[in-house]
Amino acid sequence: MTFRSFDPLPGALSGALLSALVLALAPTAQAQDAGPVTPDAARANFARPIVLAADDVRSTPPPPRGFDETRPGVVPGRVETFSYESGVTGGRRQALVYLPAGYTRERRYPVLYLLHGIGGNQHEWTGYVRANAVLDNLIADGKAVPMIVVMPNGRALPDDSVPPPDRVFTEANAAGFAKFERDLLDFLIPAVEAAYPVRADARHRALAGLSMGGGQALNIGLGHPETFAWIGGFSSAPNTRATAELTPDPGALRRQLALLYLSCGNRDGLISVSQRVHRDLLRQGVPHQWNVDASGHDRESWSDNLYQFSQRLFR
Ligand code: FER
Q: Is 0.85 surpassed by the pTM of this model?
């Protein structure tokens, strides 16, 4: 099943299409550090040689069969569209909100903000990764705390639609992902907290994402441990900040974070980004979970790591 078959928005680039695009970008160029975002640079980054260290191994039990499929007898959560006014884009923006089975305004819920990749939008986690099925099953089994999950559009531009394939790896598209930091902190979170019965403190707020969204989650989350105590970067992309900017105050992270979770597939050409963050965190003495699975840059890694990460949240 592909993202496109779920996605009501025409023109969205599916994860499957993104994979095809990545394959079409033949691995010819030299590896390079994060510079201008171009199709050539992306090709080079995806083609970086993969060198695995002894601790680049799986640290989680594999999920059970069917963990990301709709299961008969499991009451599903509800996924609804939420719109909010953004001073960053100057207009109304849309996010998807997952409300767990049994949702009631009589309770207050923790919130996970879940960010998509460079070629996706707010539908990528539900449509391509089946995040709602993963959460439905975990919550039904009592393995995850009932939580609200907010899936924004992480491209904070006046036109935040998914660009055509030849404009995905461009400075203009990537710029929207950097602008999203203020959109999230100043507009989306306050709007969510005004509209839903949520616990509005760092211990009850998590931020995670895949690829470009993984880079955003690390950049924004590690920069704001007073806002997010739970952070997950899955297959994080080269938009991930350099160490001096990413973790300038390791002591604050040690004191304030409840969980920092990093994962990547051992067949993902972007793994050097996550390896670098993992090794720097080790050097800085910042506790974190490092999980290297056998995936490429694909939904298998993201559904599996959402399964692992979401079980650990808010405990
Ligand atoms: C890049 C390669 C991949 C890059 C971003 C990505 C910012 C993101 C991929 C994704 O979100 O799937 O060089 O530069």
A: yes
Judge if the beta carbon of residue 42 lies within 6 A of ligand 1.
yes
Q: Give residue 212 CA to ligand 1 midpoint distance, Å.
A: 6
Residue range 120-138, pLDDT digits in tens: 999 999 999 999 999 999 9
Task: Please report which residue ranges of 3-91 form alpha helices under DSSP H.
Answer: 3-6, 15-24, 39-46
Q: How many Å lie between the centroid of ligand 1 and the Cα of residue 147? A: 29
- Assess whether the C-beta atom of 216 lies below 6 angstroms from ligand 1: no
> For the chain, which domains are there?
49-312 (3.40.50.1820)
Confidence (pLDDT) at 34 = 65
Could you report the per-residue pLDDT of 168-225, keeping only the tens digit for each? 999 999 999 999 999 999 999 999 999 999 999 999 999 999 999 999 999 999 999 9
**Ramachandran sector of residue 142 (left: φ over 0; alpha: ψ -120 to 50; beta: rest):** left
Q: Residue 287 to residues 244, 262, 292: CA-CA distances in angstroms?
A: 17, 11, 16
Both tokens of 295, joined, read 């995936």
- Ligand 1 pocket residue status of 305, Cβ below 6 Å: no
Q: Per-residue pLDDT for 286 more than 80? A: yes
The answer to whether 288 touches 260, Cβ cutoff 8 Å, is yes
